[in-house]
Amino acid sequence: MASMKIHGAEAIMVAVIFLAAVLPSHASTTVDEPANYYKPTAPAPPPPAPYSSPPPQVQPVIVVHGVIYCKYCRLRGYNSGMEASPLPNATVSLVCYGDEESKYRVLNQTSTAADENGYFIVMVYDLEMFDRHSCRVYLRSSPTPLCAKPFLPSNPKLGLTLVRDRKATPPRGARGVFHPRPEALMYTPGTGAKCPPPY
């Protein structure tokens, strides 16, 4: 029986071994942190600056403009001083004749269809072919057979010369703005024809 007695130091050793066997191996006196605890991070880098492409180059151009009227007819926009009305959707041709350096090329461009005020425009990008002294403006087409007889110029084979329009504000890139002389081209009803109905 004496051998079964456990003295103080041995008792402490036995208690330590017992606790080590009973308690889980990860047990500790500190509190574990949750698995998804917050970790501070560096701020996100700012987005890259947008790519700024260089401004597009403006192609040089010559502008030729004017108006087309229907003579003697009282349509919308009738001008009593001219005895004529704007002729929408009519067109003109700009023809420029080259010289020996351009190997006698011919530039032939059709204008935009005239708007409700009879206004047309031609944009010439072939600057080498443009010379106001060798360019002419011709009547090309009328939107109605009721006002399709050439009046100004009266001969469709004769064109109007060009003069520089000093009152116009040139658009960006324009090397010059010109208009025919006189500025208005005109059709008129043929012999015995009636004017188009007012639109």
UniProtKB/TrEMBL annotation:
Pfam families, per the entry: Pollen_Ole_e_1
Domain of life, source organism: Eukaryota
Signal peptide: 1-27
Example of a GO cellular component annotation carried by this entry: cell periphery
Keyword terms, alphabetized: Signal
Protein's name according to its UniProt entry: Pistil-specific extensin-like protein
